[in-house]
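Tip: read the tokens left to right.
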């Protein structure tokens, strides 16, 4: 595998070539040279594009891979293909499988199933047995087996005592607890954001406080324990401010935002499109503006696709009965770039997709330097394209973006001595 990227803008704050246009030669999985007008032999694949860019490989901290137990929705084979198409060289697999990722055997299963894939799959270990919020798992054993963090995934029924015990449990090895901030008792039967739009539609709402109460609670618990907590996603103005103030106090807190919460507000739900019924829900324009501000000032650390595949039977039903979630790995970058590309500099956007997630998880970041291993995402933020069903690599097709015109296209990835091109 010999590749030359021609006149690529390097986006990597840790590299001396950051924001410079250079040719990059990749030979046998390593960066052989970075320079101007590099020579290429006849067996070398040359990549050109009007505004070609390259960055350290992107990583998504919140994806549901379905394997084991829900392979009809997604499995590691299809999930890694979707990730590669979207520019991700790494993804985290949440633990809400069947069985859950609650023992060493399930963690090892995921790692072994993905070991030959170009996209690295990092399992998130369950905090509680079966992710049911009752009995705490042997998180140290899960850590030793390869779990990179701990969560009950899409469930938020950890009571304060169990949450505190989990934070204390992981402290000796500086583990990370990922929280899903949603208080079900405050959002019972809620289907979308509570506000003017939900009222006009006659749909039960999910109030902002259902998220903010858990954010506030877990910040206090992290502050008390001295451990790290990460919010898998936040979606409200109040949550942004809670995290901002906690960081100022030195609390070890971090958070992500979903690509769709940056791009859309709840007004798009007026057609009752079940593919836009997601968790966290699409919020108000005011919340969206606060999320963008939080991303720009560093309150929000990273961007996630929040890739939740659902089968047809779960989505092609009445809005009330549809499951939450959309697939998002293939479209995360293009969606955010299309929606807020002019409001957020490209370096900040890419850093939130690449460097920051790896820092939060304590994973190695391969720098864009000569002789470093090539773990790269190659993209062009200027390309306009239409997302079609043929672009879906996931087993599921629950996306509202088919037929949508997007700006910014992932051209390919390079990782583990392999390459993938769209």
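Filled-in amino acids:
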């Amino acid at each position: 595998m010999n590749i030359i990227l021609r006149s690529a803008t390097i986006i990597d704050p840790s590299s001396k070539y950051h924001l410079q246009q250079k040719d990059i030669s990749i030979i046998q999985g390593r960066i052989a040279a970075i320079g101007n007008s590099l020579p290429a032999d006849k067996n070398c694949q040359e990549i050109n594009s009007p505004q070609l860019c390259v960055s350290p490989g992107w990583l998504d901290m919140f994806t549901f891979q379905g394997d084991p137990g829900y392979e009809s929705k997604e499995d590691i084979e299809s999930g890694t293909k979707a990730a590669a198409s979207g520019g991700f060289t790494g993804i985290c697999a949440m633990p809400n499988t069947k069985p859950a990722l609650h023992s060493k055997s399930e963690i090892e299963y995921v790692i072994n199933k993905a070991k030959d894939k170009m996209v690295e799959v990092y399992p998130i270990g369950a905090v509680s047995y079966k992710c049911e919020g009752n009995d705490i798992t042997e998180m140290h054993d899960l850590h030793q087996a390869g779990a990179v963090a701990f969560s009950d995934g899409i469930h938020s029924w950890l009571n304060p005592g169990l949450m505190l015990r989990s934070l204390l449990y992981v402290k000796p090895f500086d583990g990370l607890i990922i929280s899903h901030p949603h208080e079900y008792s405050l959002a019972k039967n809620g289907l979308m954001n509570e506000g003017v739009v939900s009222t006009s539609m006659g749909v039960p709402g999910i109030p902002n406080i259902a998220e903010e109460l858990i954010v506030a609670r877990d910040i206090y618990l992290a502050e008390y324990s001295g451990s790290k907590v990460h919010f898998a996603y936040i979606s409200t103005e109040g949550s942004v401010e809670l995290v901002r103030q906690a960081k100022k106090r030195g609390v070890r807190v971090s958070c992500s935002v979903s690509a769709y919460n940056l791009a859309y507000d709840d007004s798009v739900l007026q057609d009752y499109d079940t593919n836009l019924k997601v968790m966290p829900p699409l919020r108000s324009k005011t919340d969206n503006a606060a999320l963008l501000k939080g991303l720009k000032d560093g309150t929000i650390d990273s961007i996630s696709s929040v890739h939740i595949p659902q089968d047809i039977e779960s989505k092609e039903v009445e809005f009330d009965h549809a499951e939450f979630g959309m697939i998002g790995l293939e479209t995360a970058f293009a969606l955010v770039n299309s929606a807020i590309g002019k409001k957020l500099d490209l370096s900040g956007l890419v850093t939130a997709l690449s460097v920051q997630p790896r820092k939060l998880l304590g994973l190695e970041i391969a720098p864009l330097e000569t002789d470093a291993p090539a773990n790269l995402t190659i993209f062009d933020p200027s390309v306009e394209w239409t997302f079609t069903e043929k672009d879906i690599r996931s087993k599921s097709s629950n996306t509202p973006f088919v037929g949508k015109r997007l700006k910014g296209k992932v051209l390919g990835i390079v990782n583990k001595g392999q390459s993938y091109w769209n």
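DSSP finds 13 helices and 18 strands in the chain. The two ends are 17 Å apart (CA to CA).
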